[in-house]
Design a protein that fits this description.
With 358 residues, the protein is mostly helical. The chain has nine helices and two strands, in the order βαααααααβαα. Helix 1 packs antiparallel against helix 2, helix 1 runs antiparallel to helix 7 and helix 2 packs parallel to helix 7. The termini are far apart.
Amino acid sequence: MLLKIKFTQQRRVRLAQGLWLLSWMAVMWGVIIFCLGVYLKTELLRRAEVMDNSEIHVVPNILMMVGLASIGTNWVASRACQDSLDATRFPRWKVFLLAWFAVAAVLCCLLIVVVVLSYALQGSLEESLKVGLRNGIRFYKDTDVPGRCFQKETIDRLQIEFRCCGNSNFKDWFEVQWVSNRYLDFTSKDVKDRIRSNVDGRYLLDGVPFSCCNPASPRPCLQLQLTDNSAHYNYDYQSEELNLYSRGCRQALTDYFMELMNSTGPGVLSVILIQLSVCLSLRYLQTAVEGAMALEDPEGDSEGFLLEKGVKETLEDLKANALKMLKFGQVDPNAAEGSSEAADAEKAEKTASPTPAS
């Protein structure tokens, strides 16, 4: 027996009481994990317009699923702790606890996957934001196009809330026409010259939307002719860092989402430790109570253990049981063929037998 411990009746009662409290603590952590998943999912959905794919949604999806499963499994563990003090009610948990341990192990594995994915998907998140923000900036002017009517509002609110400008920086706005044609005076010489000077016939500006303006700037915001020092008094394009937000929105959003996902790390690790503690404690309680019942002395001393055999032997037994269950679910073709032959022979025999006279 692996890690065998001797239990008295009083010690079993104390273990059951402590495990009951630990189970409810795990239930509360399950609620917290579920709420974290919901919050992260909500934030990702809010920024869906500036994201190109939804791969990152796998993290909050797993968090919500594991949170709900943790609530259910640890509530079951608390019920098992209560019944462990009653020799007539605990035996019904014997088969059910095997499935419980399997579910608890899967939950711990999924939580580890969440921690790994939180870091592994950072590159995918950045690429998704890069493409999404590039499209958002390109469609900024399409306020009268169905499906893009709110793109301008989305980008403006995003730049104001996250104190950022453009995709990588404010110069991204120089490469797109962000002013709609409906607001351009095509009789103006300046407008005509700008459109003719561009190969694609776009109206490009060395300017940015108002939402890029930094309120911390000591001077009124300069949005247009940003690269022309002579267009503004006492202005130097290279040194006016406070005039606009210098950070790109891709970096701002990546930092925000990574901070959210990384903040779940301590909570996830706490749930893993608590879940492992519940599993080990419940295993000791189960084997100790079953040992006392086997001795036909529910209040006597007994031994609790984690594994009845060694690790290698236990794995081999599990493998054998799994193969046995798989074979049980399969249909033996030889048996099926023999049964069909027997049925044919019985039918032929009935046909050959004479009908009794009435």
